Amino acid sequence: MNVQLFIPCFVDQLYPETGFNMVKVLEKAGCTVSYNTNQTCCGQAAFNAGYWDDAKSVCSKFLKDFNGTDYIVGPSASCVGFVRNYYGKLFENSSQHHAVQDMNKRIFEFSEFLIDVLKVDQFGAELSGKATYHDSCAALRECKIKEGPRKLLANVKGLSLTEMNDVETCCGFGGTFAIKFDSISTGMGEQKVENALATGAEYLISTDLSCLMHLQGYIKQKELHLKTMHLADVLASGW
């Protein structure tokens, strides 16, 4: 199965290893993975800031860069959810409307591609310790992802998964929300981290590095014994 790799800005600039680990897992599942080096941002940042004309220009490039028939897989429910749910609004009644409809059938967040398309939930991963999982708002509400990541983590040898309280509550990042309302954002992050620690977890896992970056900042500042990990990094562990 042919897959085009979609690497969001966060992964490209700050967490490239997650991208490499996603490739490892996809190739282990039998996929042929390609990467278009011309790809850039999906346009979400400009769109959320209210710069819709600028966003449309970036999104048009994204449609061009990922033209074709291959599946498109990315390690970010936030970015995949934006493409899936908001491109239609930007390109409504335009010449690119059909390209958007086609893309929506082909683009998937990493975990949902493994579970819903490949139908694979076992990769021989090993990671010893206790973990808890954070549902990102984008994964839960925009991509309707809930059980898939948990099925994948349940098959990681040595990993014990425990649900935290208020697991579906936002971590407080929300892109520019964290900048405009930093005190509220920090308070929400603190609550999420404290709920994770209450489970006895050593690892806090999610589909979205934007959430994990926000939470890791609080964890590091408070010198807490909790490590954030993207799902792809967990699934590539131990082999």
**SSE order in H/E notation?**
EHHEHHEHHEHEHHEHHEHEH
Low-pLDDT residue intervals, each spanning 5 or more residues: none
Give the overall pLDDT as a whole number. 95
Beta-strand proportion? 5-15%
Spatial order of the strands in the main sheet? 2-1-3-4
- If you compute it from the alpha carbons, what radius of gyration comes out, rounded to the nearest whole angstrom? 18 Å
Structural class: alpha/beta
Number of helices: 13
- Counting DSSP E segments of at least 2 residues, the number of strands comes to 8
> What shape does the CA trace take?
globular
Tell me what the structure shows.
The chain folds into two domains: 2-117, no CATH class; 126-235, 3-Layer(aba) Sandwich (Rossmann fold), CATH 3.40.50. The mean pLDDT is 95. The chain has 239 residues and is of the alpha/beta class. The protein is built from 13 helices and eight strands. The radius of gyration is 18 Å and the shape is globular. Helix 11 packs across helix 12. Helix 12 (209-222) links the parallel strand 7 (203-206) and strand 8. The relative contact order is 0.15. The chain has helices spanning 9-13, 16-28, 44-48, 52-65, 77-90, 97-106, 110-117, 137-142, 147-154, 177-180, 182-197, 209-222, 231-235; strands at residues 2-5, 32-34, 71-74, 107-109, 126-133, 157-161, 203-206, 227-230.
Helix and strand topology:
Layout: E1 2-5, H1 9-13, H2 16-28, E2 32-34, H3 44-48, H4 52-65, E3 71-74, H5 77-90, H6 97-106, E4 107-109, H7 110-117, E5 126-133, H8 137-142, H9 147-154, E6 157-161, H10 177-180, H11 182-197, E7 203-206, H12 209-222, E8 227-230, H13 231-235
Parallel strand pairs: 1-2, 1-3, 3-4, 5-6, 5-7, 7-8
Helix pairs in contact: 5-6, 7-9, 11-12
